[in-house]
Automatic annotation (TrEMBL):
PROSITE patterns: FE2OG_OXY. PANTHER family: PROLYL 4-HYDROXYLASE ALPHA SUBUNIT, TRANSMEMBRANE PROLYL 4-HYDROXYLASE. Coiled coil: none annotated. It comes from Massilia violaceinigra. This is Iron-regulated protein.
């Protein structure tokens, strides 16, 4: 049984979601791919704004990993969001790396639409290590210290920030929890 810690406002931790070996493998694989400066997603595409976000990122599609992690997590995410039914994890993974005072200022995560009838509502952040100082995920009412292998789940629309890493390097793997639209749903145009 998974050990869940709730923080309120739809924010919760799944402790020990990944093993230390899995975390080390993901860190190694991400470093082999290579990180670049993370942009901010806007209607005109990604833009670099170092006053707002300084961490590095990789965007990597992996449907097999999405399926594997969803199978492990499936008892946990809420089965319904606004009458939409749980469908799986987004195959578009984002690896984040923070080092040397890197941060991500207060923001809300955007949703991912696979089609007009499938959309994400929850962020699923997996902390791959915890051998650094700083780097908490901060909400207005709670500062959450990363724990290696644990997953932090929260609604996309929940304002949060990645505080500066003071020493060491922080690695995070992010995906999204996807939901299917109810029958008869017509997306806005």
């Amino acid at each position: 049984m998974m050990n869940i810690e709730k923080f309120g406002m739809g924010v919760f931790y799944i402790h020990d979601f990944l093993s230390p070996q899995e975390c080390a493998r993901h860190i190694g694989e991400s470093e082999a791919i290579g990180y670049t400066a993370a942009g901010l997603t806007t209607s005109e595409g990604d833009r670099i704004n170092r006053d707002y976000r300084t961490n590095d990122r990789i965007i990597h599609d992996n449907a097999a990993l999405a399926g594997q992690l969803y199978q492990r997590a499936s008892p946990v995410p809420p089965p319904l969001q606004r009458d939409w039914t749980l469908s799986g994890f987004n195959e578009r993974f984002r690896f984040y790396r923070y080092q040397g005072e890197q941060f991500f200022s207060a923001h809300k995560d955007g949703s991912y639409a696979r089609s007009g009838a499938e959309e994400s509502f929850l962020t699923f952040l997996i902390y791959l290590n915890d051998d650094f100082t700083g780097g908490h995920t901060d909400f207005a009412w709670e500062s959450i210290k990363p724990r290696a292998g644990s997953a932090l789940v929260f609604p996309h629309r929940q304002m949060h920030q990645g505080s500066a890493v003071q020493s060491g390097t922080k690695y995070v793997l992010r995906t999204d929890v996807m939901y299917h639209a109810p029958a008869g749903y017509a997306p806005e145009r």
